[in-house]
Amino acid sequence: xxxxxxxxxxxxxxxxxxxxxxxxxxxxxxxxxxxxxxxxxxxxxxxxxxxxxxxxxxxxxxxx
Length: 64
Hints:
- This protein is mainly α.
- It contains two helices and no strands.
- The protein has helices spanning 5-29, 42-51.
- The mean pLDDT is 80.
């Protein structure tokens, strides 16, 4: 059975969302933002703003 174009497009959108969420997870838990702080604090600011979300608090790795 051949998938429709709409279903293939939806699959690509979901796949992109999953890849982006994996990058955010890696950024939040595996990388120290101070190491990448060569843009005047922008990376640290983004990291701190994402940490405000409930799923990314320290100790909540399973919920994220």
